[in-house]
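Hi L., both proteins are below.
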Amino acid sequence: MGVPFSARSDPHEDAPVPTEVVLGGVELGVPELPNLDLLRSVAVCLVVFSHAMLYSGRGSGAAFAGIAGVCMFFVHTCLVLMGSLERDPHPGRFYLRRIFRIYPLWLVILGVTMLLQIPASPPFAPGFGFHHPDWRDLLGNMTLLMNVYGYPDVVGASWTLPIEVQMYLILPFVFAFIRSFRVIWPLLVVQGYLMFSAWRTVLPMYTPMLVCAPYFLPGAMGYVLYQRKRLQRYPAWLFVVSLTGTIALMTRFGTLQRAWCFCLALGLGLPLFQQIRWPAFNRVTAMMARYSYGIYLTHIPAICFGVYVLRGQPIAVRGVALVTALVGLPVVFYHAVERPGIRLGSRLAGKIERGPEPRADERMMRMEPAP
């Protein structure tokens, strides 16, 4: 599409990183995309808050705060992976990097969950407690095919991962279309058709990929619009206000069907705003974005540790233990599992068709599009 989408839109895209972010042919003069860091940071915070309330039994109404966070993950994922495919459109290398980005940490967390028998659902949910999987359940969870065959989730809050992995299969084709035509109206038509067709469908966690496509397609629309520099006219503070208001509406009035509209608003709205240029604020959101995948996968064990394992302990002890686990586990697993997996995937991807071996850049690792 002419110019690269960003210098670091995909944290494990391993090409050398330029010193400036380029959107729509305009150098923004910053080495990052802070708005996307903020989007991902807020998304993971919403998911953690929602599950903390649900597992403590104090906030079933917080469920749609978590759904809002998941929707933000989906839009972010599709948007930044369009940039990844622009830098290297080879499907084989793309799929290989995805595999080594998602599965190593997932398999480790699955093993820890089984070893410690961590519950996969809040206490008021049917079947509360650890699910003892048979070999079919285990194989379905290991391969992230739970939604295809209806296997129960062994790890709490993992229902989004199969949907995302299956979405990876179609992204190279979506990108090929975008690169050829650079228009969004066909995507809007597809979005509208899918929303209309499935509006009256009850959406379980084990739901067809086509029903979930409207959660992702707005990210591709946002990618196209990011190439049009004239759209980026509104100040960064208005982005923060707009994002807050949209999340509040989704949390208060959201349904799984209305979440399609929420995703559409995100995808079409993100390219309208200038990038945030608040250094201290950006450093915080950048750090949270780096560890967000680990936070997503480890927050249920951390919450169970603080809520159940330490029940009967003073609230201060439980609070400190919970915060320590929420912060410490993602950092440990990032450096012990995620980062080596990213590097291994990069090396293997570089060997396909004798292409140049990519270089894993630290700045690009943290915004990994995984829920």
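That was the first. Here is the second:
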Amino acid sequence: MDLATKIEASDATVIRGIQSLGFDGLPHLKTAIAEKLDQGVRTPVEKVGVTLSHLSQDKDRAPFHLVAESYASMLATLSRLPLAQEIEAAVRLLNNAKRIGLYGGGPPNALARQTATHLTRIGRYGFVLEDSGHAFSDQVMGLQPDDAVIIIAYGTALKEALLIKTEIQRIGGKLVVITDNPNGRVARGADAVVEVPRTEVGNMMLYGTILMALETIVLSLTREDPDRSLSAAGRLRDLRSQLKQQE
């Protein structure tokens, strides 16, 4: 048990401590923590306040250096995680999908749109689930059994993400979840979970690690079918040439 090793205690001691808190065991404790994380903890005002406090304490250092150091530390952490294997498992599922949908919910939605564009450029059918209200329900209803959907799930478990999860599983499609909360409501029961922790400066979350995972997925799919990727690139070149001729 990694926890026992980190605190230099026996597995039995850790289990007894967890049980003394009212949990059945470590899985129960992890689930409880994950559900709490799903609920979110700080308001936007509180987050900005923490960030400003952090920046004021390091006012002699440029924000760029704070960001660079934060990413450097996180990259070292990522190299120790089974991230490469998790991405490979996700790519195997995505490679067999007829279409690949993406849902970001909030700031990560921009990453979802960018990834969908890159998927199209390598000959994959990429689309984004991003409408709201009744229009979002229409989008979800359009999911098909041969689809795979990537949900980017951080912070509060959004009702839209849960709806996508329920529907794609109901129709027999594949669900890939990129998250820092693998025991959370969105990730539990997914066909593939890619655990990607985010880094931060103060309490301002940075999204570079998520982008890295998405770009790795696109590159991996490019390698899986070189002919399709080259054909799509050629078609894109031709379309761009036609645009230039009409200028």
